[in-house]
Design a protein that fits this description.
Layout lengths: L1 E4 L2 E4 L2 E4 L2 E2 H8 L3 E5 H12 L7 E6 L6 H9 L3 E4 L2 H9 L7 E3 L6 H9 L4 E4 L2 H14 L3 E6 L25 H13 L3 E7 L10 H19 L6 E3 L17 H15 L2 E4 L3 H4 L3 E13 L2 E6 L8 H5 L5 E3 L7 E7 L8 E9 L6 E4 L20 E6 L2 E6 L4 H5 L4
Helix pairs in contact: 5-6, 8-9
The structure holds pyridoxal-5'-phosphate (PLP).
The site of pyridoxal-5'-phosphate has 17 residues, from helix 10.
């Protein structure tokens, strides 16, 4: 196989995921369709998780990157926990068989009902993001008659040098609290009958490839943990968040998870804490592709548009962040490349999957794969323009199965009666 990413590549000119030619998936399931590879998920999970084997740790997969129950089940089999940001994600994680003691719950706007759900299910800890939330959590715990295990999410004020929309660890971001505020919250929690501070949490952003910021943040947070200890507030879990980037351009080298481990391991070793990690994109991103069909080729003076049947409602990242997704044809092509815009059918000028991209010359009816679509792909899909959301497929060896049916027209209006 001429490999592009692990488990993905060309054989005799045809694009395969594991042992499955993607054309077969298209013939059976149609387009647009998200396709995930079980082996690729395993590859990326192990690449990450094994890098930290030197210290006690739990790799809590960030469910928001890919919430499909079958994806979660694959990761659960490998020992993954779940990093969640809503009641819905906790529900998905538990439905997939993930042990509640491996579930953490973050998010700046948790409703009381969600806190209740989390506590009742006995998750590992709630990552509290504000003073108000701490009081809300206390109230819910009291109502349930059950102490609430928590971490405070601190904002270590570091710049991860990634896209501003996915930078979360700068002090102007809405996430977490300052160290000063965190101190107050821990003191309060320590005294409360209903609160039990068990951990500390930070998450500085996403698609980070400058690894040194992780070390910088971890050391700042570790210093804070030492201050807590000196006041008699012991925390057991050091939750270092997610955010490790991937190579959206296959020709670029991916930063090994080992590099991240080298930054974090010495810090937690010294603290003697149990490490929690929350990778999302890193595990699911390159384990999935979106396949779409070229509907029309529109030529205008010196501009070519490939109009495809997947739009910004199916894959939001390019229009939302101007994100780059590599695109390859299902059938390898020889000959001259063409510079073209790959656009969707949505009635928005911003509905662009790739702008001025050098691509093989494509014809109407051809299929292309949008790569690195396993993270923040389907989970960000919507029904905008009343388009049913795509099907999802899981490849395993020579076989594949539909893990989410394509939505139908009646699904679109099902809640309107
Ligand atoms: C989004 C998110 C993650 C995962 O981020 P990735 O970049 O996908 O690894 C982890 N933790 C929290 C709190 C998040 O909000």
């Amino acid at each position: 196989m001429k490999e592009i990413y692990p488990e993905l590549g060309y054989r005799n000119g045809e694009l395969f995921f594991e042992e499955v030619p993607l054309k077969e998936v298209v013939q059976r399931v149609g387009t647009p369709v998200y396709v995930y590879s079980r082996k690729a998920l395993e590859y990326w999970f192990n690449e990450f998780d094994l890098a930290f084997s030197e210290v006690p740790h739990t790799t809590c997969f960030a469910v928001k990157s890919n919430s499909n129950v079958h994806v979660l089940k694959v990761l659960k089999e490998l020992g993954a926990g779940a990093d969640t940001v809503s009641m819905g994600e906790i529900f998905r994680a538990l439905t997939s068989g993930i042990n509640p003691k491996k579930v953490v719950f973050a998010g700046v706007g948790k409703r009381e009902e969600e806190l209740h759900f989390a506590l009742e299910r006995g998750i590992l800890m709630v990552n509290v993001e504000s003073e108000g939330e701490l009081y809300a959590l206390e109230k819910v715990a009291q109502k349930l008659g059950r102490r609430a295990p928590l971490a405070v999410r601190v904002n270590p004020d570091v710049n991860p040098k990634t896209h501003p929309y996915i930078s979360t660890g700068l002090k102007e971001a809405k996430f977490g609290v300052t160290f000063e505020k965190a101190f107050e919250l821990y003191r309060y929690a320590k005294k409360s009958r209903w609160l039990e501070p068990v951990g500390i949490h930070f998450h500085i952003g996403s698609q980070i490839t400058d690894i040194s910021v992780f070390g910088e943040a971890a050391r700042k947070v570790a210093n804070f943990v030492r201050e807590l200890h000196s006041e008699g507030i012991e925390v057991e879990y050091f939750d270092a968040g997610g955010g490790l980037g991937i190579n959206y351009r296959p020709e670029e080298k991916i930063v090994p998870a080992k590099r991240l481990a080298e930054e974090i391991i010495p810090v937690v070793k010294e603290l003697g804490c149990h490490l929690i990690l929350e990778p999302g994109r890193r595990i699911s991103g390159n384990a999935g592709v979106l396949i779409t069909q070229v509907l029309y080729v529109k030529k205008r003076e010196n501009k070519t548009f490939y109009i495809v049947d997947a739009g910004m409602n199916d894959i939001a990242r390019p229009s939302l962040y101007g994100a780059y997704h590599h695109i390859v044809p299902l059938q390898e092509r020889e000959g001259e490349n063409v510079v073209a815009d790959v656009v969707g059918p949505i009635c928005e000028t911003g509905d662009v999957i790739a702008k001025e991209r050098e691509l093989p010359s494509l014809k109407e009816g051809d299929y292309i794969a949008v790569l690195s679509a396993g993270a923040y792909g389907f989970t960000m899909a919507s029904n905008y323009n009343s388009r049913p959301r795509p099907a999802e497929v899981m490849v395993e060896g020579e076989n594949f199965k539909i893990v989410r049916q394509r939505e139908t027209l009646s699904d679109l209006i099902a809640r309107e009666f």
